[in-house]
Fold:
Amino acid sequence: MRKVLTKIAAISAVAVLAAGALAGCGESNTVIMGTNAAFPPFEYTTSQGLVGEFDGIDVAIASKIAENMGKELQIEDMEFDGLIASVSTGKVDMVVAGMTATDERKQSVDFSEPYYVASQIMVVAPDNTDITKAEDLKNDKNVGVVLGYTGDTIVTEDLQLDESKITRANRGIDIVQDVKNGKLDAVVIDSATGKALAEKNGLKVVEDAEAFETEEYAIAVKKGNTELLDKINETLAQMKANGEIEQLALEYDEKLAENAQ
Ligand code: GLN
Structure:
């Protein structure tokens, strides 16, 4: 009996030691990425992803950041609208979600250096001929956006469409279906994602570079978390300098185009 007890004590001592080592003696061994995995090619789910079921350009970038920090990457998938609050309250360490670094968001979080330049585009039916520029959306069109995306701000504040004409969804991949089934005339969404979704669903992309300004995607951390931000910027600088980000963009465009066939 005594022997057994000693053994148990020894085992628990080892367990405590192991837990201590895993936690880096007080420091966590994981870095948690918050995202909304419905934004291909940046983040989406698939049967065999890069990290569990998750795949995409942002997942690849975040993996590199974690690797450079000697940490495990953990991914928390949630609604886009809740990401800023999650990082501000420390539920996640960084938001890597194709997030545009807007002045409004900069009041709540700190952003890394930008890693991708995008703009908004319109996704319409393949036979649509009456939407050729953003202004055309004002002609009584039913327009879809994703709640809290920059596209939402643009149709609401810049184009000032009538509220009754705007449909807001939680996921870009769902709202594009409504263009396909005729419920909506157009969806205003980020360029790379819009192109990927249009291709997948046999829809058409309409660009209007004059109306839609370029946007820069960046990684968000809790205000004042310069330690993590510096590490993120180091990895981004390295990945930009060696062409890795550009390479990822090409790779995932191809990957998704193949899947759309
Ligand atoms: N770039 C857009 C934004 O920041 C959309 C990002 C996203 O859906 N993941 O609002």
The first helix runs from residue 2 to 22. The pocket of glutamine is lined by residues 36, 39, 80, 97-100, 146, 149-150, 190, 215 (CB under 6 Å). The chain has two domains: 30-117+216-260, 120-206. DSSP finds nine helices and 15 strands in the chain.
